[in-house]
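Handout, page 2. Input:
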Amino acid sequence: MSDQETVEPEQDESVSTYDQLVEEPQETQDVEQEETRVPLHALQKERRKRQEAEERANFLEQQKKTAEQDESRYDSATKEDLSKTQNETIRIIEERKWVRDNPEKCKKIDDELPQFLKNRPNLASAIEASTNRYEEAWDLMSALTPKQQKKVMSQKQEAPGSPSGIPKSAALSETVDLMNMTDTEFNSWRLQKRGRK
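Output:
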């Protein structure tokens, strides 16, 4: 037994640590009570500072994300890309101006264009390629709509001095055969024509 050492019971240590633990909460309670005695305006000021710092951090994070996502804006543009964007911008401006100046025509185009393109699908590419699609569609629709063509034909026939209003036989009777004229007939005909002018 002399080789063995004596071991003190562990209960004594646990009791002493328990006593220390019991004493510590009382000290922390005192500290907490002292912290609650800090003026309210100081806490509010500190809270505002924290919120502003969080907002700045969030803002900077969002800027980093957008900068990382939109790195394509730093790609070099070719002349073709620039001309495409310029043409698109010009098209948008011209179409907006035309729509603003012609609201009735625009409404009619929006209503009738799909049916018109069903009847004449070959004109879709011409409309799409123009700088002002509304104006081009209006021109084509007004020129090629069957109802309007009939109106135009009737107006042409009523116009005075119109070649379509003169019958063919009357037009042929007024022709002059210069090859079969003699010199004196030609000179008299020529003087007659000069006198009219």
